[in-house]
């Protein structure tokens, strides 16, 4: 399934779970929405290796959690331009689509990691604990933003 708009993704996967991905160079944060699409829950962080090694881990999560589509965070620059990080995420999406074809949509993730980091600092988490959680919490933050947009779409 190809890349679709957020509204199309919601229509194609109505009543099914959506997953959220925060794709980084070293890790992939993963979150899952409930079937009512009210809440995003952080699930896991995958340490990235070669793409072919990441695929079985993602397939297992798709199967275990019943994910029918993905919201993928797109790391757009603050000025709205797309740099090399965006190109890497777009390439990841194309590679993922070739082996695990589910409908996917991008969500602007500007400042998501910073917001999650700030929240964890305010919660007085240690640096070690923050490092363990940041990627999957960022994925949940990204997914929650998309879910909220879907719920309040005019």
Description:
With 154 residues, the protein is an alpha/beta fold. Helix 4 (112-122) crosses helix 5 (127-151). Helix content is 48%, strand content 23%.
Biggest β-sheet: strands ordered side by side in the sheet: 3-2-1-4-5
Integer-rounded radius of gyration:
15 Å
What is the CATH third-level topology name? Answer: Nucleotidyltransferase, domain 5
General form: globular
CATH homologous superfamily caption: YqgF/RNase H-like domain
Q: Estimate nothing, just give the exact number of structural domains.
A: 1
Write down the overall mean pLDDT. Answer: 89
Named CATH architecture: 2-Layer Sandwich
The number of helical runs is: 5
Parts with pLDDT < 50 across at least 5 consecutive residues: none
Task: Summarize the SSE layout with pairings.
Blueprint: H1 6-12, E1 17-23, E2 27-33, E3 40-47, H2 51-65, E4 67-74, H3 84-99, E5 104-108, H4 112-122, H5 127-151
Parallel strand pairs: 1-4, 4-5
Antiparallel strand pairs: 1-2, 2-3
Summarize the structure.
The protein is of the alpha/beta class and 154 residues long. The chain has one domain (6-151): Nucleotidyltransferase, domain 5 (2-Layer Sandwich), CATH 3.30.420.
